[in-house]
Amino acid sequence: MKHLALIITFLAVFTSCSKDIEEATTTADYYGKWTLVKMSGSMINSVTTGTAMEWQESYLFKNDGTFEKSRMRNTVETKAVGTYTAIDYQDGKYLELTYSNDSEIIGSCYGNLTESLYFSAANTLSSTWRACDGPGLEYQKADSNFN
Known about the structure:
Elements: H1 2-26, E1 32-40, E2 47-49, E3 56-61, E4 66-73, E5 76-89, E6 92-99, E7 114-121, E8 124-127, E9 136-143
Antiparallel strand pairs: 1-2, 1-3, 1-9, 3-4, 4-5, 5-6, 6-7, 7-8, 8-9
């Protein structure tokens, strides 16, 4: 009887934890505008935020599977568009972006028309560009009223 109670308790805890993890990764609301809030480099203490960042940037993810990326650098605005897909990997949820045309604002390790972002925390998207010596870029959701 003691073992049965232990097994039931273990299953109840395991099931509730699994449900929490699943909800956190599947209910992430990524539609809308995401704004760059932090940049970091490979050097220790090389973090910048706000107007001190080298550029200002945002993504607008629409319900129809398209996106627009906009970057403002030295008063020059550059935009790029494409499609995206949300993908669940073992280590978390990712947004895989495919651009319609080549652009200098594509932050990718591969030098092609694709870019990947992942949910590093609740309401925080991070670029995978850092994995190949690009800057660490973190975005936070600005507004959920864009469709």
